[in-house]
């Protein structure tokens, strides 16, 4: 089914790190969108998994997202190269992916997840690169290989499914 389901999704946040974000094009807006995803995930029971690339060199996760979920430290650009990452994603649920950089860690992780036959949905307005053309090329490549490209609001409203959802009003405040 192409629609996302809160009961069958994991939100994966790649490398939103303190020393990296100032160099990312429109970094503050990306963090704000990731915060909305994390808040919606919390309200709707969607698990969150985070990664940090070389945390000794790039620092920890930005304060706005710190503590949103367990963190897998990695040196490989592809998070799937870390056994703990794949173990944390056991099963065959949907992966809602966002982070930095689109053309490096996010891209390699998404391609590996697709190779593992996982359904990957990439949130474009919560994914960035230092240069916009790098992000654009990554999104086009990932779409060609089977990743769904969506926005934060698409994810949130698909997770909700209905204005009759008991948490609708709380979640709606995130997008207004």
From TrEMBL:
Keywords: Hydrolase. Residues 10-153 form the Isochorismatase-like domain. GO terms for molecular function: hydrolase activity. Pfam families: Isochorismatase. CDD domains: YcaC_related (cd01012). This is Hydrolase. It comes from Bosea massiliensis.
């Amino acid at each position: 089914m192409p629609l996302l389901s809160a009961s069958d999704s994991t939100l994966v946040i790649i490398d939103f790190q303190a020393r990296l974000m100032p160099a990312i094009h429109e970094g503050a807006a990306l963090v704000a969108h990731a915060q909305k995803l994390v808040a919606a995930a919390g309200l709707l029971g969607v698990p969150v998994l985070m990664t940090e690339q070389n945390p000794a060199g790039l620092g920890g996760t930005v304060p706005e997202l710190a503590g949103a979920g367990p963190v897998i430290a990695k040196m490989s650009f592809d998070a799937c190269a870390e056994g703990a990452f794949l173990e944390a994603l056991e099963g065959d649920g949907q992966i809602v992916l966002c982070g930095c950089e689109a053309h490096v860690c996010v891209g390699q992780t998404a391609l590996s997840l697709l190779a593992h036959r996982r359904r990957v949905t990439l949130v474009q307005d919560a994914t960035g690169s230092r240069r916009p053309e790098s992000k654009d090329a990554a999104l086009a490549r990932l779409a060609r290989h089977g990743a769904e490209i969506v926005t934060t609001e698409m994810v949130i409203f698909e997770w909700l499914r209905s204005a009759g959802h008991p948490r609708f009003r709380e979640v709606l405040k995130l997008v207004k």
